[in-house]
Structure to design on (619 residues):
């Protein structure tokens, strides 16, 4: 059970703000901090002392839950359930591409051991109707004992686990007793409905949390025709998940592993897949989305991408061209304001539901049931209402993407109309994704976009923030030139110069004219697929021209490189090489000498001296 709260702590260069311990409100307004989410389990594993008779009596009411009548939970979904039965299956599988450590105190271990990475898989799915009692919540609860491998969970082991859980997590005994007896909707191992294939939602839980932390939502979605698959948030080498880059990467790979086994599920449609994540799971799933273009939609429930944006920004995946699928953000009070990921999404149709009366822990059913239900009656009612809205909007978004196949306009009208909500409880923001550069240019060619400069003007925010990615603007300029639209290309370059003031234009125009700059730009872009007029791009273009028999043309690029980078000894050495190939040995010597004057490293010092000697011999 992972219960964590986000606070402003620094973890090296990963997070400036990160989640440390999850808190929940109590009636006095104080904040109760939950301890390490797996201490109770570790204590359970390490314990070799039998529970005392007195302890057994103290917990007798809980230990006999299996014979008691079903209880009513403090949390339920009042939104209409779907027409499908709900099945649940769990199994353990190994990811043989990664290792995992079990210590000697783990169940069944007499010594430390390294094994393949264990993955506990939980699946909720549309099922056939069956005459069988549904699961009780305790059947989810005790799955925590099997998160790093299936074990034989005897009654004594259950007793010990419960005792340690109560001691460590400070859960109210009566609340736990009541919730463990609650009838859920899923029927374990029910026959799957195979009349069709159903869309899939891969769910990533919060820090160190269980696969079933949002079991209520998972059951609800399964009843509406979705397969939901999840695994617990388990660390890279042991059960506890570290708050670190490797921890986030580990969870992303776990979600990708779940993706890889979808074809083993009898009614899962592997061509219709969305991913969702709560808290830390809403950072890990951003990495997964960036690496897997076959994912059709992304859902972030108070996603840590808000808090830990620096991590994503410094990763190899902060290329917004990777994100063109629909996205849904559901945010509680603490996650509504600083939204850099949402703000910078360019090509995704994005929908945001803010719930300002909710706290972070109100977005997962497990935390409300076990921790939030001890609040005042009024506050519990707020949590229940809010959780129902979470279920409502997640289902609406998935239906819009997979069932109704709505575009942005129709999705907004049908499911995310801000005029049809209670603004004191719910706030909705949406924005339409821009067309990718190829699609935009195609629309321009076909006359559907009359003027590209006017289109670009429409993307500039009131604060003069340039929304359209610079890399794609460069590609647009190049595409226009390649299609003999020289005037359009020129207009786009002028717009580029006027609006991206920190770009290369002013420094380049100190040495060449605007038309020459456009000519240089197009050639550098052709050979580098981008153009910032940096040393390496110019040198690469010049070398290709020089070695391709276009020596005179290459010299223009070599010379501009020295003008833009006058302290770069490599630029002068390569200009010397350009002249050397043209048999202009006098100018070659001048530039080899200039290279030596700039204190080159040993490699270029040796090369410059060698070619200086050769050029003298060529007099």
């Amino acid at each position: 059970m992972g219960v964590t709260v986000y606070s402003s702590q620094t973890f090296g260069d990963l997070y400036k703000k990160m989640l440390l311990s999850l808190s929940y409100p109590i009636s006095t307004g104080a904040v109760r901090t939950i301890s390490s989410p797996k201490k109770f389990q570790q204590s359970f594993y390490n314990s070799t002392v039998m529970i005392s008779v007195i302890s057994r009596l103290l917990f007798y009411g809980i230990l006999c839950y299996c014979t008691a009548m079903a209880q009513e939970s403090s949390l339920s979904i009042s939104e209409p359930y779907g027409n499908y039965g709900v099945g649940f299956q769990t199994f353990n599988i190994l990811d043989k591409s990664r290792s995992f450590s079990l210590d000697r105190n783990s169940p069944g271990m007499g010594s430390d051991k390294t094994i393949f990475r264990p993955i506990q898989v939980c699946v909720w799915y549309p099922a056939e109707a069956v005459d069988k009692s549904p699961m009780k919540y305790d059947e989810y609860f005790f799955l925590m004992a099997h998160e790093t491998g299936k074990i034989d969970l005897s009654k004594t082991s259950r007793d010990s686990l419960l005792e340690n859980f109560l001691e460590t997590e400070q859960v109210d005994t009566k609340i736990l007793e009541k919730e463990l007896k609650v009838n859920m909707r899923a029927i374990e191992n029910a026959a799957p409905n195979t009349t069709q294939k159903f869309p899939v939602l891969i769910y990533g839980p919060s820090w160190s949390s269980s696969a079933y932390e949002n079991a209520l939502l998972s059951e609800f979605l399964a009843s509406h025709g979705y397969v939901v698959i999840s695994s617990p948030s388990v660390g890279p080498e042991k059960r506890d998940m570290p708050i670190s880059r490797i921890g986030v990467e580990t969870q992303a790979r776990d979600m990708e592993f779940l993706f890889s086994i979808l074809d083993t599920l009898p009614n899962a449609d592997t061509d219709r897949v969305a991913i969702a994540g709560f808290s830390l799971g809403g950072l890990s799933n951003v990495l997964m989305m960036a690496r897997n273009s076959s994912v059709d939609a992304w859902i972030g429930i108070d996603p840590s991408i808000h808090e830990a944006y620096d991590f994503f920004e410094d990763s190899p995946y902060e290329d917004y061209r990777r994100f063109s699928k629909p996205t849904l953000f559901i945010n509680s009070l603490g996650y509504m304001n600083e939204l850099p990921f949402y703000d910078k999404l360019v090509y995704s149709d994005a929908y945001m539901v803010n719930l300002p009366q909710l706290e972070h822990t109100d977005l997962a059913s497990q935390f409300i049931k076990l921790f939030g239900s001890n609040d005042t009656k009024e506050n519990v009612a707020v949590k229940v209402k809010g959780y129902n809205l979470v279920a409502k909007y997640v289902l609406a978004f998935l239906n819009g993407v997979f069932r109704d196949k709505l575009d942005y306009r129709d999705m907004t009208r049908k499911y995310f109309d801000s005029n049809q909500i209670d603004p004191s409880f719910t706030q909705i923001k949406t924005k339409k994704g821009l067309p990718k550069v190829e699609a935009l240019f195609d629309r321009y060619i076909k006359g559907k976009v009359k003027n590209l400069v006017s289109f670009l003007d429409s993307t500039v925010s009131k604060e003069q923030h340039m929304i359209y990615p610079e890399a794609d603007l460069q590609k647009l300029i190049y595409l226009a030139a390649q299609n003999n639209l020289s005037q359009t290309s020129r207009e786009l370059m002028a717009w580029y110069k006027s609006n991206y003031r920190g770009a290369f234009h002013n420094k380049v125009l100190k040495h060449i004219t605007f038309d020459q700059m456009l000519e240089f730009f197009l050639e550098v872009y052709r050979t580098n697929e981008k153009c910032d007029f940096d040393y390496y791009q110019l040198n690469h273009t010049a070398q290709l021209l020089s070695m391709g028999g276009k020596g005179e043309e290459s010299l223009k690029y070599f010379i501009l490189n020295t003008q833009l980078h006058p302290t770069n000894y490599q630029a002068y050495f390569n200009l010397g090489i350009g002249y050397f190939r043209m048999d202009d040995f006098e100018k070659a010597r001048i530039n080899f000498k200039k290279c030596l004057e700039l204190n080159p490293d040993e490699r270029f010092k040796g090369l410059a001296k060698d070619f200086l000697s050769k050029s003298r011999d060529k007099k």
Summary: The chain has a mean pLDDT of 83. The chain is about 45% helix and 15% strand. The radius of gyration is 30 Å.
